[in-house]
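Lecture notes, unit on protein representations.

Consider one protein chain, 179 amino acids long.
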Amino acid sequence: MDELTAPEGFLLRPWLPADAPAVLRAFEPDEMGRQTDRPVFDLAGALVWIAERTRERGARTDYSWAVVGERGEALGCVALQDINRIHDTAWVSYWTTESARGRGVASAGVRAVARWAFRRQGLYRLELGHRTDNHASCRVARRAGFATEGIERSRLRYGRTRYDVERHARLADDAVDGD
């Protein structure tokens, strides 16, 4: 249950303390800090972030994987959160380090986590959302088989600016190429 593989050659595994430098690099851009309620500013903060992911996994409330390349370096993160066992739903989130962007890391990771969620966790519906101006996240969602469902107007606020969010979902019985 702890490790997943993606046909694209990536391994998804639990976060390790040795991944702290990659987490810190991922959170360096201001954009990342605005998108989370748990920003990381230093190596100690990265270790706390990893410890929180480990605690959530142990409690079976949320699951977060490091998406790892062939050299063992953490390239990104895919998480399954807000699991609702009454409705068999969950929220998917993802990010990659700047150097990993454009390599298919996020879409491969999201596909692997979706397979696990449907087959191993018995979930039926997975949801995700991204700002409408985040075209890269939209491509990830679509490549991972998530259908566009609509726009949530002014859903997010960063500073004084509000952003619309495009919502996507994938169902366990959706026909997705390669899954």
